Amino acid sequence: MMTQDELKRAVAQAAIAYIPVGSMVGVGTGSTANFFIDELAKIKNKIQGAVASSEVSAKRLQEHGIEVMSLNEAGNLPVYVDGADEITRHLHMIKGGGGALTREKIVAAASAKFICLCDASKLVDVLGTFPLPIEVLPMARSYVARQMVALGGQPKLREGFITDNGNIILDVLGLQILNPVELETKLNNIAGVVTNGLFAQRGADVLLLGTKDGVKILTP
Ligand code: 5RP
Q: Which of 8, 44, 46, 166 is surrounded by the fewest CB atoms within 10 Å?
């Protein structure tokens, strides 16, 4: 029986096949992305560098001797590789468990292909068992929380956590996410919301799913 970490390492290794030689690579955040960074280090002479979706990932990349560039310097990227907290067969995701959702959404938006790396436990039929992270400007905290209650959710402030952008996170439980594309738009329109953790309008293009029978490749 493979452990969850072994499944994460297996998908991280499989992702290397999707990295074009000589490219700038978009790199996500979290424990699965960390395995990917460790694999990327093994081919660091074959890539130009990386754009990171968080300070934590930038540091890990640099510690491996991989050059980190800002997205503004790098321009559009061929691939973005990241994990997810939940993913459906349509490759719609909930992300932001690590709190890096805003930069993740930006780097993903600037990338031609989103390769998502998950162990089998992340695949769900309906999104929303994992509380939906929402990055909010601090002054809008209680207003946005009330709006979440009006939508039927139970918002909880992520205690002691400030994002790389200086904002807070509300984790919202109990939302019925039957139409993630629509809900993503609706949440984006609430004043004070910086980003919500639904990645549905721009979902993943490829899911590498770590299962006990090996790495499965899913496309939408
Ligand atoms: C961070 C994220 C991560 O991709 C997500 O939380 C998954 O993390 P892990 O690979 O540790 O399960 O969105 O903001």
A: 166
Structure confidence by residue, pLDDT tens digits, 140-194: 999 999 999 999 999 999 999 999 999 999 999 999 799 999 999 999 999 999 9
Please report the DSSP string for 46-74 in residue order.
GS-EEEESSHHHHHHHHHTT--B--HHHH
- How many H helices and E strands in the chain? 7, 13
Distance 86 CA to ligand 1 centre (A): 9
Ligand 1 pocket, 192 CB below 6 A? no
9, 1, 47, 3: which is closest to 26 by C-alpha?
Answer: 47
Pocket flag, ligand 1, residue 34 (CB < 6 Å): no
Read off the pLDDT of residues 15-63 as tens digits, 9 standing for 90 and up.
999 999 999 999 999 999 999 999 999 999 999 999 999 999 999 999 9
Q: What is the pTM of this model?
A: 0.96
How far, in Å, from the CA of 127 to the mean position of ligand 1? 15
| CB of residue 101 inside a 6 A radius of ligand 1 | yes
Active site residues: 104
Query: Using a 6 Å cutoff on CB, does residue 203 contact ligand 1?
Result: no
In three-state form (DSSP H/G/I as H, E/B as E, the rest C), the secondary structure along 137-205 is CHHHHHHHHHHHHHCCCEEEECCCCCCCCCCEEEEEECCCECCHHHHHHHHHCCCCEEEECEECCCCCC
Q: How far is CA 66 from its chain centroid? A: 20
